[in-house]
Design a protein that fits this description.
Blueprint lengths: L1 H36 L2 H16 L8 E6 L8 E4 L4 E6 L8 H18 L4 H9 L1 H17 L3 H14 L2 H9 L6 H15 L1
Parallel strand pairs: 1-3
Antiparallel strand pairs: 2-3
Length: 198
């Protein structure tokens, strides 16, 4: 009995030590990524993000959203990392070639994710990891939210920039199973919004 208790305590201690080391390694990794991701471009993106939050995404005004430049995904332009305390918006280095309107559209799309995420729970994100339909819905609703906010013309510029700079394969995936709205669908939704508002 004493031997079992001793093994149990040793196992718990080792798990605790291992968890602490993993947490320290993860913190060190993200701190190094964060510091490398802060540059003149990320500062510009941060300014645009803050302006969008102030004017359009006021439900995010109490959230800390850090913008960094990070090529996490080869074909992606940006990503929204919904961590509990500090939100991270990562922007690819290829966005340096976007015009100002395209950058605004891209950031508006990512902010729409953060806004939509406020209504979601951890079980949604578990499903998101494994279900293509949930991922597609996640992207489509972000695009639709950008258009609802009156920022559709910027979203359209962002799509145009993606098409110009992206690979054929990534674009086919984006607009077929990826859930993103195509240029035509964005234009139609903008027109419908304009008709309904008149």
């Amino acid at each position: 009995m004493k031997e079992k208790l001793k093994k149990s305590k040793t196992l718990r201690r080792n798990i605790l030590i291992g968890s602490g080391i993993a947490l320290l390694a993860a913190t060190t990794f993200f701190a190094s990524v964060y510091s490398r991701g802060k540059n003149e471009y990320s500062k510009e993106y941060q300014t645009i993000t803050n302006e969008l939050i102030q004017k359009n995404y006021t439900t995010l005004s109490d959230k800390k959203i850090n913008v960094i430049e990070w090529d996490l995904f080869h074909d992606g332009s940006a990503f929204a990392l919904p961590t509990p305390f500090v939100k991270t918006l990562g922007v690819s280095t290829k966005v340096r070639n976007y015009n100002d309107d395209a950058i605004k559209g891209l950031l508006a799309h990512e902010l729409a994710h953060f806004e939509n995420n406020q209504k979601k729970n951890v079980f949604y994100f578990i499903r998101w990891m494994f279900d293509k339909d949930v991922k597609a819905e996640y992207e489509r609703t972000a695009d639709e939210r950008v258009i609802e906010m009156g920022l559709g013309k910027y979203l359209l510029e962002s799509v145009e920039a993606d098409i110009k700079l992206g690979t054929k394969k990534s674009l086919e995936e984006r607009y077929s199973s990826g859930g993103y709205l195509s240029r035509e669908k964005i234009k139609n939704k903008i027109n419908n919004l304009n008709i309904n508002s008149n």
